[in-house]
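Consider the following assembly input.
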Amino acid sequence: MLIASQILGLIAPQWILLVAAMLVLALDLTLGEEREGWLPYIALLGLGAALVASLSLWNRQVALFEGLFLIDRFAVFFQIIAVLATGLVILASIGYFEGKTPYKGQFYALLLVTALAITLLASAADLVMVFISIEVLSVTSYTLTGYLIADRKSTEAGLKFFLYGAAASAIMLYGMTLLYGATGSTNLAEIGRTLSLASGEGSRWLPIAAIVMLLVGFGFKVSAAPFHQWAPDVYEGAPTPFAAFLSVGSKAAGFAILLRVFLTALPDFRVDWFALVTTLSIATMTLGNLIAIFQENIKRMLAYSSIAQAGYILIGLACWDPQATGRESISAILFYLLAYLFTNLGAFTVVIAVERAVGTNEISDYAGLIRRNPWLAAALFVFFLSLVGIPPTGVFVGKLLIFAAAVRLEYYALVIVALINGVISLYYYYGVLRRVFFLAPRDEAPIAVSTPLRVVLAVTLIMTLGTAIFAQPFIRLALTSAVL
Amino acid sequence: MGISHVLFILFSVLILGGGVMVVTRRNLVQAAGALILTLFGVAGLYVLLEAGFLAAVQILIYIGAIAILIIFAVMLTRRLADEQEPGLNSQWAWALGTAVMALAILVIVIQGTWPLAGGVVGNAPPLTGDSTSRLGVALLSPEQYAFPFEVASVLLLSAMLGAIVIAREKRH
Amino acid sequence: MVPLSWYLMVSAALFCLGIFGVLARRNAVAILMGTELMLNAANINLVAFWRHLRPDVMSGQVFTLMVFVVAAAEAAVGLALCIAIYSSRGTVVVEDMDLLKG
Amino acid sequence: MEGFDVANLFVSIGQVWTGFLVNLGLSSQWIAFVNKLVAALLLTALPVTIVVFTIMGERKIIGRFQDRLGPNRVGPYGFLQTVPDVVKLLTKEIITPTNVDKVMYNVAPALSVIAVILIWAVMPIAPSMIGVDLDIGVVYFLAVSSLATLAILLAGWSSNNKYALIAAFRTVSQLVSYEVPLVLSLLVPVMLASSLSMNDIVQAQSRGWFVILAPISMLIFFISGTAEVGRSPFDLLEADSEIVAGFNIEYSGMRFAMFFLGEWIHAFTFCALTATLYFGGWRGPFVDQVPALGALYFFAKMFILYLIHIWIRATMPRFRIDQMLAFSWKFLVPLALVNVAVMALATKLLAPPDLSASFWATLPRWGGFLGVNLIMAVGTFVAVREVARQARRKEEEVSGRFGSAAVVQE
């Protein structure tokens, strides 16, 4: 039995994030217009404290509140991902809202709550906890997507996100109730135990129906086809920093909970969900890559690209086999998510920089970017290289690890589909890069990049290359975190 | 057929009849009124299931707050022309097919063995003690659900904050 | 005592009505009402399972209360978005929202 | 004493009645059903009967407040005025305007009465004289009274009249805003009695009314209750100077009378609730010996509180809509939140003495609670004064800057 102070220590990242959010809100009311600029840095300070707190939990393996809330390396890994994503997004959003909305402090506060939701989700080990945490993430996401009330695209995106999201989470909830009905418990581990005892006799239909419904909800979060329709609209309409956050933070949270639920509660139904996940994976990457070709808006293109990436990551789940590849496939997913975090955030940061100079997000505006700001062009080149999966970049290593797991299980077809998809994706990434490097700019004026954006670009660039060149420690990190 | 069966059928008719009206009525305030009927029916089922506290909270929150909020929103976003426009979109037949198929699958699933855990199908176990106070204890003791309870308050707070930011009058 | 399967049937029917509403309605508020139906269907399930499986453990009822909270939060944010959209373009019919190609 | 015990009288009436039903040849299940039906009818009749008295009393008393005689034609001192009034309302033509939403237009008036009458199902009138002693009585009351909001909303919308619709919008903003402090203040008696049952709350006041332990909570409850009922100074739903007649503008005859009835019942029902939750309900001297006295005390307390209601109504001007909302969100809600937190702490620290404890042993608890409430009251006063001062300073700055203009205007 833990005493209160110990519990407080164990949930320190969570309450630090909450306190930071409240602090930002309170200061937003009291600081006044002139000193509003401090708020993002205060939020960053809170994130830093939360990072320290979660790192201090690295070697803990505790179940809190009667198994409701697990603190293990898996959870801590996602805590780190959440903090990193939020921190970089906050840096990238400094100055973004100038003249777009009168409310700036609330953005940072809500973003901190979103980070809190991801950390909760990574630790949730009970259906009640899973549901409520997903909803915290969703509800704040709807708000932040529709945040620019003066921008009609933003509100429209917010409403569409909300409508899709509310329906998806209702379906997911129904699946959870079926699971509860099948086992009489909401605890994931206990559900897993009960199902493993009962899987021999009786109907398997019930858990399978539950699995399908859960996949709707989780698939929505990771934007897997056919639950991806929200993503392009939302990415296009949302404030760009938040679109960046959705593409990495929200997606990582979706995978965290997908792994946690499927691997602790439903491992005995692997034969059933394997087929579903494989289909989902193939559909997701193919659809994402094919539609991305026809996009004229860079945010939409990145949205479809991020859908396709979800497809690659799902291969990792499909290749999970408790006997053969248990930890490797999970660690491949974790590594992929980490590398993808830096790569995609970097790409979005370039988009933010261009958007702030040009005002729109059309791909045609990227013509001659190299002459307007060679650094941006070079960074975009590296990020796109990584997104395609060409060495020496982080996502390349991630793909390699995932393919390794697939090859070990001899799922060659999946690898081949993924490789073909890689080739397709080359086409549209090249389409952008061709404009950046070879076409003449419409406007010769150089694009200035603010200091916070430079910091984000530097960090993401270094990490995109670093996770590949010095891959070993990161792979080891992913491997040690791959304990569920 | 005892009195509970009769009540059950009554509430089910209320729920499903209201539900049908919710999804088909052109006039949205009437649809919201039908939603209230459905919510009442659900509260009735809670009473039959001996969850009186939930029934009261259902009426208090769902009807007293959510349904009223919905009616309010309908009134605020209403054009007079709306009543002439169709309530359903062009894919409604496809949607109907999906819904019927989902129902068929769910019915098959429900006919399966319930539950895998224990195999209770007939009568429910007797209810002992005061379930309302046990619910209170469950919600507020750290060994049970106090933590999700706190998370729920964070959810409400952020929803409130978000709603204010989005719906507040623009002042630049 | 009404058997469990009766409740489940009603809940399944309500859930599918909700799905139909979400897929077939044009007005955003009407779609929201569809999701409310689905949430209520899930709640019937939860309470029925609670009563029939393990009434001594309150997880089903706690879950139901959480769904209430979530429904309230979703309704608040969703309706705020509806009102924001209406004030800028005078409609909440989803088909008329065509700035994003979706 | 035995012969005067009215409770026993009821019991013997019940026995006679049951015997009558048995003679009719009904099975025991049906007898129980019929008995419940009769009880429900009686409980429904009760508030409707009280309304007749309150209406005539109120008209007389308000007349005196406003320095006029009030009704004085029908019956002695005009006390029978209600009778021709009711006859008039019943015989008036029922008008249904064109293009109204027929179903809702007709449902709304009935709903407004049903919602308030349902509250009486859990009202403990005397010891063991309660419709149903629900273990969730307080939540039930909240749930049911939220339906009254719905009735007004539906009436306002379905009337197809812009004034009615404006009133409906006001309803939502007003009633929903005041429900928050109402619920928060209601938590305090629930915590003190550690039960949600109305009867338990009355029982728990055997060692002192909750109004002594939690006066601030009582005030918040009473104020937000007045707002919930929509009576002066919160009668913006039917502010005749602004929106003609408000949500019931299109209603006539019996339908109008229903709203009228609903509002009136709601008003004294809230007084009855205040009496139950804070003033000991049916508690009073000698109730243990003569339970029927309880009903007397209960109604006496209710009427005294109702007198205060009438007093407020006769003397306070109506709020402006923004003032009304600000009063709830900026004053009542924060105060209620602080109150709940402080009272929860106080309840935890000052555990109730067992029933055998002497009067003196309970004094520290009373003192503690009173002290806590006093501190809160003083704190509120200081805070409000500070806010008012700042507002005044700002005002003065503005008028200082535009001082000359102001002078010219004068």
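Chain D has a mean pLDDT of 81. Ask yourself how this observation constrains the way the partners meet.
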